[in-house]
User: Fold this.
Amino acid sequence: MTSFCLEVSGDYACFTRPEMKVERVSYDVITPSAARSIFEAILWKPAIRWEVRRIEVLKPIRWISVRRNEVAAKASVRNAQAAMNAGHGSLGLYIEDERQQRAGLFLRDVAYRLHADLLPTGSDAASNPAKYREMFVRRADKGQCVNQPYLGCREFAARFRLVADVADEAPALTESRDLGWMLYDMDFGDPNDPRPRFFRAELQGGVIDLEKVKVIG
Assistant:
């Protein structure tokens, strides 16, 4: 097991609450699953998995309300299959016909330090952990990624930096509060019926210690 730390930041973020059916409303801080996806954006292999252990909030929690246009429809799988079988067909969506305006409550000017363990799931990673460790460090140092990391929504790109020594970094936000129930991750044990898992999030001195939380679901 090898631990790494990333500092991530962005102008905007939205870690959408699943109970909000129509309007997008963000959690107060990044969720563990969103944090994990940032590590996976830098390095993902079938032989490894990432487990987030600790989240440090580096900037005050601030909000912004935005009204924006969204497309209300998506391309039909049935129409796509029919077009493939026939060799022709119309799969276009006309934005003017499908546009709808929605309000969103997003976070702004965010920054976090994310601590995660690189865990082997395959024999290659278990027998040669240094290979994957060095691969991640090299990619993170150069700013390389499989896909652009984002903060909840793909339009909110994340900047990231590998932290070599946390002791040399600025301290986390000196704030404590109960953040309520938060999405931890999705359980894909049954691929046909993925289930959400939740935990009670407590911000203590700007830190969410995920090793101390009880996950339900």
In short: Helices lie at 32-42, 77-86, 95-98, 123-127, 129-142.
